[in-house]
Amino acid sequence: xxxxxxxxxxxxxxxxxxxxxxxxxxxxxxxxxxxxxxxxxxxxxxxxxxxxxxxxxxxxxxxxxxxxxxxxxxxxxxxxxxxxxxxxxxxxxxxxxxxxxxxxxxxxxxxxxxxxxxxxxxxxxxxxxxxxxxxxxxxxxxxxxxxxxxxxxxxxxxxxxxxxxxxxxxxxxxxxxxxxxxxxxxxxxxxxxxxxxxxxxxxxxxxxxxxxxxxxxxxxxxxxxxxxxxxxxxxxxxxxxxxxxxxxxxxxxxxxxxxxxxxxxxxxxxxxxxxxxxxxxxxxxxxxxxxxxxxxxxxxxxxxxxxxxxxxxxxxxxxxxxxxxxxxxxxxxxxxxxxxxxxxxxxxxxxxxxxxxxxxxxxxxxxxxxxxxxxxxxxxxxxxxxxxxxxxxxxxxxxxxxxxxxxxxxxxxxxxxxx
Length: 419
Prior knowledge:
mainly beta, 14-stranded antiparallel β-barrel, 5 helices
């Protein structure tokens, strides 16, 4: 019994760690303009989502601006177990949203911005009818919701140099559910559920610099500190056999913490002509900052066999990409981009909850800008090459070995109102 419960908790740890990882597991850019130039946005992004992405860019906004973003995601995720069953992801549709506001205090010289977004997240759902050992090895539901509140201030230091600073005020809500076979401990016992729910807050900071070092040439640097979130909530187990009722309880407290990594991003923007702009981005994320996961479940702690946490081998990762835009006229613009995100999840700690690999994002978008309103629409294809796993840590052994296919289709819509 202990090994299976430890495995369940380890799945929680893998879930928490994986969704932190840079662009590899984070949500793609949330505004349609940012997604349209996905690999070249740091020096060129000009909508209000720059509050979080490249805060010094909000000085480009001359009037009060409200940006509302929504998207439609459809995923095709499938795990084919070695010599066993095929298991599809059961929740293919996701509908994220975000909102940003920028207020110029001294237009072009001093601006304030505020964002509310969901930069990290996961919603893994597998069929409850899974058979074999996977039924008790793989959680049937795992969700992570994050909400990031990002106030930022930008100031122009010289005509060519701008600086901005902001805060990441991050809320995280984690839920994990899995079947448990008490029959393996007390023959004849009914199946039960084990559930974890935890919430918490954390705070970090970020800063950005924009430098126009030559006519038509821009350089942007953004640094982001890690954000540690302390999680607290409940651990629950159902249908505990009467023989074990004096040892374990149906509910206990749950406490842990998780760290969303710091990063350094660099962008270069070049206006080839008055209408045609290109950008190139690089990002490094310190995913190794989350090297362990403490696990405290109150009086049920003996279920962990004396363990109080887990150690992970996440690797730092990089992103590389390009993006471009062409201004057809004063109202219409076309955009396109490509982003490569390096995988940070090693094979020995792989889990179907976050079936990651190197990520390729291809995007095409269009934007319309009027005197007081703007509308942007972008389609992106997010492709992960099929990954074959051998030797993944799981209980029973080798249950997570197999091949994983993973892709997303994303349609992003943004509406801007200027005052």
